[in-house]
Specification:
single chain, mainly beta, Immunoglobulin-like, 2 domains, 5-stranded antiparallel beta sheet, 2 helices, 39% strand, elongated
Length: 253
């Protein structure tokens, strides 16, 4: 009987979603610090603790399939969602952010400050942070992108290669607006793929250095030349998750 009642109440849940999204502009000025019965509130910030507007927050039931509520963070990074009476039980919260840059559209999973469940009776505060690097919550992968390397006409130890990244001229900032910096990373053998992992998404030039020598790179998905310096714009190549990005190069001597 509960199954039928839930689907009869779907219009109510959908109307709750619309209400939650429309309330964003009228939230109080002070950040959410305590729970309110029947309500999920929170704030979305970047690595500088500045508010992030337009993040999509999903409140999902832990049992009922395809049962969720939606909200978006407002100009102050805040959101609020009212939980329905039915279905009863526990809910979880997650958030994503979509950004256009470098001719691509990127979707980011945001880091939650609490991954626990909550109910209508308890309410909850769930805050999120936009990170461009670091290990994801739960230890499954990284927030950053990765560069994959494939040997082509070279006889080198791939794990002895270092990639040197330099911010692209006239692109001094990463996708979140923070200042990009030059860095170098060693190539690792990750489950049979040679890669440099967890790179903050920005626009770079890259060189591959091996025993003091600069190797040649060729974009695996473009008809271009072998060159010592290549431009890095992350996209989707191969079998990647929804919010995972990479670029692939052949490496040769």
């Amino acid at each position: 009987m509960k199954y039928k009642t839930f689907y009869w109440l779907l219009p109510f849940i959908c109307s709750t979603v619309v209400t939650a999204c429309s309330k964003n502009a009228g939230l109080p000025d002070a950040p959410a610090t305590g729970t309110k019965n029947g309500v999920v509130t929170g704030i979305v910030t970047d690595t500088k603790d500045l508010p992030v507007k337009g993040a999509n927050v999903t409140i999902e039931h832990t049992v009922w399939y395809n049962s969720y509520l939606l909200a978006a963070s407002n100009n102050e990074g805040k959101y609020e969602v009212s939980l329905p009476d039915d279905p009863a039980g526990d809910w979880t919260a997650k958030a994503q952010l979509t950004k256009d840059a470098y001719g691509q559209t990127y979707k980011f999973d945001l880091e939650p400050d609490n991954t626990g469940t909550f109910s209508k009776a308890s309410g909850a505060v769930r805050n999120f942070k936009w990170r461009l690097s670091g290990q994801r919550s739960g230890g499954t992968g990284y927030y950053g992108a990765h560069v994959d390397l494939y040997m082509f006409g070279a006889d080198v130890n791939m794990t002895k290669i270092k990639l040197v990244f330099t911010p692209y001229p006239d692109e001094a900032n990463l996708i979140d607006g923070t200042v990009a910096a030059a860095f170098e990373r060693p190539v690792e053998d990750i489950a049979g793929t040679f890669m440099v992992k967890d790179i903050p998404i920005g626009k770079y030039t890259v060189k591959a250095v091996y025993n003091g020598k600069t190797l040649l790179l060729n974009n695996r998905h473009q008809d271009d030349n072998n060159e010592e310096t290549k431009t890095v714009i992350f996209g989707k190549n191969g079998y990647l998750g929804e919010t995972e990005y990479n670029i692939e190069f052949y490496v040769t001597e």
